[in-house]
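A protein record pairs a chain with a discrete description of its three-dimensional fold. The shape at a given residue is found from the number at the same position. Here is what such a record looks like in full:
>
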Amino acid sequence: MKKIFTLALGFTSLLGSASPLLAADAPHSGGSLTVGVETEPTTFNPQLNGQDKAEITLRNFWESLLARRPDGSFVPWLAESYQISPDGKTLRFTLRHDVAFSNGEKLNAQAVAENFRHTQDARYCAGTSLCLMGTHIASIETPDDTTVVINLNATYSPFLSFAAGLQILAPASWQSTQLKSGGKEIAGTGPFILDSYEKGQQVTFVRNPNYRWAPATAKHQGPAYLERVTYRFLPESSVRTGALLSGQVDAIEGISGNDAGEFKDNGDFTYQHALNTGTPYSLFLNVDYGPTQDVRVRQALLQGLEIDPLLKSVYRGERTRAWGITSPVDPLYDKALEGKYGNQPDAANRLLDEAGWSARDSEGFRTKAGQRLRIELIQAQATVRDQRDVLLQAIQAQARQRLGVDLKLNYVDSGTYTEVRASGKFGTIANSNTPTDGVDIENHYRPIKQGGAINYSRVNDAQINALLDKAAGTLDIAQRRQAYSDLQTRALTELALALPLYEPEDQLATASYVHGYGFRSYKQMPESVYDVWLSEH
């Protein structure tokens, strides 16, 4: 699969007159790194944390059974090998013998099995994709200390991706009072260990001196180069940019379109960006509540708005327009919908007239039976990043001007977000998601009662359900791609369940003395700092 990231400043500029000795440098141990990040984790338990951008910190101390190459193929990590039965119903993982958690507990079959058993416990995993996956497990066996066998109820093709990537907690974690929040008692196997956490300020990790089991996708083996890494929580892009330019931090992520130019052509820094996998940042339209129950209202939003100029204005051309239900870097992506909808305000207004929203109030908003055409847009405060608040304001203004729709923006805390989702009393939820291989599609479009943890549109459509079953029931990639293509057509052009906005991406800018920082080879999210090292500066 083609890499979708670019390195705006290559080694030639790094080896310029400002740093003549860099060419002779080789990776070496020592030093501390400070990184400015946009997102503070709501929990340090990686299984319960739904913030994709929190993984830049969490991935330092939590690991999975398998890693992935750029083409999506699997390589050993905590498991040295795996097998999947021809019918896809049995997965067998053979674990490494030499892995230990940071609390000294040994990684063994029983420890791994317990992690999978918790995906079947609704009290633990409620509201996460864990529960969706757990419903497919028929039994878990541990025939010996290094073998875990997972038997599924039926063939379910997304399960391998999920199982390979489940981040493994130490056995003692399940009895800890810190299980839900995460903390020092919740041990992982990663190259770093949680040292301190100052809420609202920063989190610091120290090197795990016993680490010896990096996957083949890593650039070296043995302990990490860095002795310590600190992540400072700096929600504002301009603040992060200023911190790096002034030397207060050594690296930053989440760089706005306005600020990218500060680093792209500056020999003192490197700049990289990469599209994420998974579901684009989209407005998921509720089919069960309020005006969006009417497919004509949903179609009017899909067809009437013009997203491209908004993206260009907000992000200065630094973001990619989304069209489908998954990312262009996902093997299951279908280009068929690109350019097939949107920017048809006349057709959209006719749809709204037909739906009975033909009158106007004194402010120009559409009304029916004296009620304004108001759609409440819910955005979790924890996932407000990448100038999404600015983008939503621009969409709000365009919806009013072009369609006479009152799009009410409501930013809510985590507790309220959970309550609103459970109640179903909202018009639309704005969100994105990074899981691959159909896991993201399952999460968004599988009926809620069947485990669709983030089915924000609350759809339960017979055709979509049949297509989900068809895709999940085969290991043939061509058949899966066709099923998801048909699902995409049904979900978007026919039912207008979502309005895709843009493809989320990650950006990294580092001082020129920082080496080895980059993206995961498949999901293309920022990697841990395991391979990062510092030259003299």
Observations:
- The first strand starts at residue 5 and ends at 7.
- The CA atoms of residues 357 and 371 lie 9 Å apart.
